[in-house]
Amino acid sequence: METANPTQEAHYSFFQGVERNFDKAAKYTRFESGILEQIKACNSVYRMKFPVRIGENIEVIEAYRVQHSHHKLPCKGGIRYSMDVNQDEVMALAALMTYKCAIVNVPFGGAKGGIKINPRKYSAFELEKITRRYASELVKKNFIGPGIDVPAPDYGTGGREMSWIVDTYASLKPGEVDALACVTGKPVTQGGVRGRTEATGLGIFYGIREVCAIKEDMDKIGLTTGIEGKRVIVQGLGNVGYHAAKFFFDAGAIIVGLAEYEGGIYDEKGLNIYDVVDHRKSTGSILGYPGATNFKVSGDTLEQPCDILIPAALENQINGSNAGRIHAKIIGEGANGPLTPDADEILAAKGVIVVPDMYLNAGGVTVSYFEWLKNLSHVRFGRMDKRFSENHFDTMLKSVESLTGKRVSDIERSQILHGPDEVDLVYSGLEDTMIGSYHEIREAFLKLGGKVDMRTAAFTVAIDKVGVSYEELGIFP
Predict the structure, then answer these.
(1) Which of 248, 283, 309, 357 is deepest in the core (most CB within 10 A)?
(2) What pLDDT digit, counting tens, does each position of 37-70 carry?
């Protein structure tokens, strides 16, 4: 099989890859070229450099914030800390956020941010100084706010960084009652929502579970329906990969492979995700896990036999040079852009179902939307109706017991009377979103009669929704 030139892969532009996928889908939509160009373009790109004193020296930090689309406000997208951050990457991720939000019916435009640092090189105090300075730069240029642009965690960041950002924003915007809504992914004590930490991994699980539930599609690739017993490889044991692997493991899937930056492990009999994490905590590496085969090159793990492959680390992990060696029949893009367009073509020819990132890892932004709504309403989900529901269920249960003369067990009673907590409502909303959105993409795929892959079908869904928004805005004289 012909593979891409390694030199070409080295110069791969992530943003051009997104545009290439957009163009493939655009011809199946009804919009004129001008609207399509507006949808595709990044509306605002803010590249900044600012000084921060680190130890005895002053370092000049390079950072970005890109707002891809203003068809709906606020814009929404994470902030990553990595030495790989560059303008091309941030523009691509912002564009994917626009399409992602459209697919899961979250009313945001796409955005993304990044700071070009290795967070492991800095102390917590130094990271706080960098983060707060970045936040103040965003405030200066009006690139952050509950109705303007709402960041979130991404690679290298988490709730701690979001707490620093919201505190900086609130100090610069005194009296703003909705200040907590300027970022999402915050700790629960700082206005976060329960269920946000595991949201992206759980969304991946819900999405792949729905893919595997459709018998017609599973028959085509020679798999049975359901998650139980499926062999799964997960790349990345960060927040997204760990939770995805955990939910698959708990549902009865067999985790045969795990890959991290230090290498990968594989065991056809299955790996216990909890034991692997404990092993890594005690030794500093997943390598050397008892009974598993070690791979010093992390990418080699992806090429081992499995049914489902979840690349949940960084972009460009499966490309023209290694796609032909992938054994998986289903690839769920847990990360942003882990497959290049060249890989898409090779895998499509093999009949592999590729579940695209712009749908599959939308669990994070979906639950971020719930957090944003919570911050704007100033009420915790479930506070208004939990006790009412429990009392109502209790009344009904007593009536049934009275009519039948039988009493349910204490365990059954506890389950029946349980009113929804915040996390229950978040999980339910996420599950409904992932199921409904997948069938919307699949319907578009079937409507196009097999002329496109699932990614292109997802793009057509997103383009249609964003295009309609632009038409309804009436901004084209």
Answers:
(1) 309
(2) 999 999 999 999 999 999 899 999 999 999 999 9
- Strand partners of residue 339: 318
Instruction: Give the residue-averaged pLDDT of 370-399.
Output: 81
Cβ-based burial of 317 (10 A; exposed 0-12, middle 13-18, buried ≥19): buried
Residue 61 β-bridge partners? 50
pLDDT at 8: 42
Nearest to 185 by CA among 198, 175, 167, 174: 198
**What is the C-alpha to C-alpha distance for residues 362 and 106, in angstroms, rounded to an integer?**
10
**Residue 112 among the catalytic residues:** yes
Q: What is the DSSP string of 94-156?
A: HHHHHHHHHHTT---EEEEEEE-S-GGGS-HHHHHHHHHHHHHHHHHTT--BTTTEEEEE-TT
**32 DSSP assignment:** -
Tell me: pLDDT of 229 over 90: yes
CB atoms within 10 A of CB 285: 15
pLDDT at residue 381 is higher than 70: no
Structural domain spans, the chain: 47-190, 199-360, 381-473
Question: Do the two domains 47-190 and 199-360 of this chain adopt the same fold?
Answer: yes
Are the C-beta atoms of residues 116 and 356 closer than 8 Å to each other? no
Identified catalytic residue from 112, 329, 386, 465: 112
- Rounded CA-CA distance 350/291 in Å is 32
Widest Cα–Cα separation across the chain: 79
**47-190, CATH topology level:** Rossmann fold (3.40.50)
